[in-house]
Structures are given as structure tokens and as C-alpha cells.
Amino acid sequence: MVLKPGHVTMLRVHWNAKDGYSLAITSGEAEDVEPQFNGASGRIKMSQDVTGLVDQFVSHGYESHFALVYGDYRDDLVQLAKLLNLPYDLY
To answer: Which has the closest alpha carbon to 23: 67, 75, 87, 91?
Structure first.
């Protein structure tokens, strides 16, 4: 399976024993690419500089797996974080 092209929103629900749960929210554009290997594959062009983004993820201790959904749900996820009284980072 290859991701179809289009805008995507990505979410990481992060757990930290000191601070509890937090959300990492970002977005990008799934590109039209050939399969890279057996199984699900794809390439996402991020909305911001990837090097800086990875540095931020590492400095916050975010794990490597994010949920991905087609569309722009960043505002909805921010509202969810506020309703649940969870800290969040919007990238």
C-alpha cells in the first residue's frame, strides 16, 4: 500500500511520567511516490523544516510513531487538547 497524495494531519499522544499526557500535532503533504518496500509506505513533505522539527521532537522525547489522517484537523486537535486539559505542541 502507498499513501495517496493529499494533505495529512499527524498526532502523537505522548506520555511522560513527570508531566502525564501531552499531544504533538503537525501536518504535511503526502506525495505521489512509488512503493518503497512491501507494506504501507509513503513520503510526507512537512509544513516546516524537517531538521528543526526532528530536533524539537527529540528534545521533547516524542516517540517515533504518529497517527496519520487525511485532511487538516490541527484546529480540532488543539480544541480537543484544551477540552481535556492536556498540554500540546502545534508544529
So the answer is: 87
